Amino acid sequence: MKPTPDPRAVLTEELLRKFDTPGPRYTSYPTADRFAESFGPADAVRVLEARRQGSSTAPLSLYVHIPFCESLCYYCACNKIITKHHERATEYLDALETELALVVESLGTGRPVSQLHFGGGSPTFLSDAELARVMQALSTAFRLTADSEVSIEVDPRTVTPTRLAHLRQLGFNRLSFGVQDFDIKVQEAVHRVQPFEMVRELMTSARELGFVSINADLIYGLPKQTPETFARTVRQMGELRPDRIALYAYAHLPERFKPQRRVAATDLPSAPQRIAMLGDAIAGFLSRDYCYIGMDHFALPDDSLAVAKREGRLHRNFQGYSTQPDCDLVALGVSAIGRVGAAYYQNAKTLSAYYDSLGQRLLPVVRGYSLTRDDELRRDVIMALMCQGRLEFEPIERAHGVTMADYFSHELESMRAMAQSGLVEMEERAIQVTAPGWFLVRAIAMVFDRHLQSAKERHQFSKVV
Ligand code: SF4
Fold first, then answer.
1. 289 and 402 housed in the same domain
2. Are residues 209 and 311 in the same domain?
3. Does the beta carbon of 121 sit less than 6 angstroms from any atom of ligand 1?
4. Is the pTM of this model over 0.90?
5. Do 442 and 388 belong to one domain?
6. Is the CB of 153 under 6 A from ligand 1?
7. H/E run at residue 92
8. Nearest to residue 98, comparing CAs of 385, 410, 399, 332?
9. Are residues 270 and 399 in the same domain?
């Protein structure tokens, strides 16, 4: 693979004007905005039962959403509930157990699970005893495989080394720390103060406790950030040496995400500053031996994500890049999104609707989507571009019974325009994303998205850079 270039050198103004348009991150295809309310609890039961009766013995992926956070981060775009009332967790866990029982009723007990992820909100809002309760319920309902990846998002302000030891005891083997930025002015501007020393102590403990992989999230484009302050954050993060780093671009969409209305637009860095920050961060991580995985992910060379990238085995799911093949994903909790077979489904977004459904012993599914054959074909195309950076025509034609040149004549025309801009190389029977093209890989994938027709639809997404 060619080395990753410095984005400051390759992302010219012309390229950005042409291709830095709002677009999805493609953690699914079609994206969640396509889900329809005509898909409800009975449909979810049907897909779960079909999986039980089907021939698939592949392990499942499991996602558990814990929506609570103690305090609001102003950049937040997640589905969360801000509360200091920890007792609210009890009612939630009761409901979660009811949901689990209903899922198992349709899916069968003891199904193998190779990937379990706790996200939120802040899963570490739960006490040690509450986390133990959820893990106990899950391990009764499912069977975690010996090599399973068991991960949890950690808000550094809610844990101590002792709590991390408890997580390890419960079977968690991966941690993801929400860091965002180490600069105090930025932390104050986003209402999330957590000193560098706090994160350093936790990461050191996590290593001593034997967590297999430690991830840290950073965000560029936040209020009060400058290329200078962010370069210092990147250096500090490099010193901590987490196995994986996710570097997200802040998308300021205050009309969609209410917390962001507390961010003063005048405090936001300019577009050239954002590109400088992205460039500095990429250059900084590469110089510290991190591999660029794609979009916004970096990993140390011996981390399984970097190995999978080198071997062309990367996948993508709702948590981003993954080493696990495309497993069915069972999602539990308010607003959680699952995917079983050829269907996606999402739970109620409010606690009251979530509790109401479960009170009637109905799965709390409020919308979903059954993929058509065209969707399945396009999903394979988009995931090949996003994960491998290469679209080979032959396997797609074989799997879907189409001729690429005919089926995608219009899209291939657009690819030729992208080739002229240096984002892809067109081969006789393949499309290769170039090293500069990786920075705009979403824009490349968007060409094959049948649902993303109008500019209005695009504008609900964030920009690529
Ligand atoms: S960013 Fe995370 S911790 Fe902060 S409010 Fe949102 S969900 Fe909670």
1. no
2. yes
3. yes
4. yes
5. yes
6. no
7. helix 88-107
8. 332
9. no
